[in-house]
Amino acid sequence: MLSIETFEFNPFQENTYLLYDETGEAVVIDAGNYDREEDKELSDFIAEKGLTLKAIWNTHSHIDHILGSYYVKDKYKAPLFIHPLDEQTLRMGKISAQMYGFPRFTEVTADGFISEEEPMKFGNQSFKVLFVPGHAPGHVAFYHAQQKILLGGDVLFFRSIGRSDLPGGNHNTLIESIHNKIFTLPDEVVVYPGHGPTTTVKDEKAENPFCALTLK
Question: Is domain 3-207 annotated with CATH 1.10.1200.10?
Answer without folding.
Answer: no
